[in-house]
Design brief:
It is built from three helices and 31 strands. The chain has about 350 residues and is mainly beta. The strands form eight sheets. The chain has a five-stranded antiparallel β-sheet, with no helix packed on it. Strands 6-7-9-10 form a four-stranded antiparallel β-sheet, with helices on one face. It has a four-stranded antiparallel β-sheet with strand order 11-12-13-14, with no helix packed on it. Strand 27 (about 305-315) and strand 28 form a beta hairpin. It starts with a strand and ends with a strand.
Length: about 350
């Protein structure tokens, strides 16, 4: 985790802007966080052509979007000094008076008292404009937006909990302890329920956002990280990352119904658009893996080096896969598992978001 000096971080924060957008606004896009490059790259979902870049999103790792939200929410894995956070949270496009009004009312402190401070950047997905920065307790790993577009949930591994931001008023509204080292967040069909993997204790927490509580914990291997959910909200797929295993949990019972052995350390996963296959990035063994969920058959192909984050791109038959070791993203044919193009990026590609026109 990085810690910003005020001068460096403030300069980055206030320089946030969308640069070089040349694509038609109706073009389906993929947003690629570039980690230590402090930016989000925007590419055409079909061709991979670079169409723009949002700069000034500090150490962005988690990124979320939703068809029912006009926003992207980017989470920073960089903590800043608490005394500097209020000034740094002012976007360049917001006036001093507006910012002062936003911070005029005393706020109840949320999160652990010893937690550091990080920032969520709320971005207009259509224009790339930075609308607000929200202070959250501790470095942000991954982010999810609720299906109704109302809430953004962030995981905070160093603080053992999640934060909940209301996207109607850009306010942090809740802190909910989950388990040791919460890693990933995913919603099903219910906007009030979010599922959180706890990499430090081998569980997935089912969290009720309205009540602000964990309703149940489900055993999910040894070190659960990335998650993906079936479109009907019934099945949860968990990457038991360190030992290279996928755990499939039936949410009606909270129990695992199948496991799939991949081998080596794994990372990202996502379902194919038709829900028939689960795609997995086998980082340690340099493979892209496809699991047929009807038959259980597993096929793979070489993808090197170190396939990392993975996102299905609706309407294209392809998936985007980033490399942990090199600054690039592959476009991979979902059926043949063949890489059809490489997209150069800066930094490293983290939690990618695909939004249709």
């Amino acid at each position: 985790m990085k810690t910003a000096t005020l001068a460096t971080a403030l300069a980055i924060s206030l320089s946030t802007a969308l640069t070089a957008v040349s694509a038609n606004a109706d073009t389906a896009r993929v947003y690629i966080p570039e980690g230590r490059a402090d930016a989000i790259r925007i590419v055409d979902a079909v061709t991979g052509q670079d169409v723009g870049r949002i700069v000034g999103t500090e150490a962005v790792h988690g990124l979320a979007g939703s068809p029912n939200s006009r926003y992207l929410v980017a989470g920073s894995y960089m903590e800043i000094d608490r005394d500097d956070a209020t000034e740094m949270s002012k976007p360049a496009a917001v006036s001093d008076d507006e910012h002062a009004a936003h911070h005029s009312k005393p706020k109840k402190a949320l999160g652990p008292s010893d937690a550091g401070v990080s920032l969520l950047s709320v971005i207009d997905a259509a224009t790339g404009d930075l609308l607000r920065k929200i202070e959250v307790p501790g470095a942000v790993h991954h982010v999810a937006i609720s299906p109704d577009g109302r809430f953004a949930v962030s995981t905070h591994p160093s603080s053992d909990g999640i934060s909940v931001a209301d996207l109607d008023n850009f306010e942090l509204v809740a802190w909910i302890p989950t388990g040791s080292m919460p890693n990933y967040a995913v919603f099903g069909t219910n906007p009030g329920i979010v599922y959180i993997s706890n990499a430090g204790n081998g569980t997935v927490s089912e969290v009720d956002l309205e009540l602000g509580i964990v309703r149940r914990n489900m055993i999910a291997g040894e070190a659960p990280e990335h998650l993906t959910m079936s479109s009907d909200g019934g099945m949860l797929f968990v990457a038991d990352a360190d030992i290279g295993r996928i755990v499939e949990i039936d949410l009606s019972t909270g129990r695992d119904v199948r496991t799939f052995e991949i081998g080596g350390e794994i990372h990202g996963l996502d379902l194919s658009e038709d829900q028939a296959h689960l795609m997995v990035a086998a980082k340690e063994t340099d493979r892209i893996v496809s699991i047929d969920l009807r038959s259980g058959n597993i096929v793979d192909a070489v993808l090197s080096p170190a396939p990392y984050h993975l996102t299905t791109i609706p309407g294209t038959g392809s998936i985007f896969v980033s490399s942990r070791d090199e600054p690039k993203v592959w476009i991979v044919d979902g059926k043949t598992l063949t890489a059809t193009k490489e997209i150069p990026i800066e930094g490293e590609g983290h939690q990618m978001v695909a939004l249709s026109k």
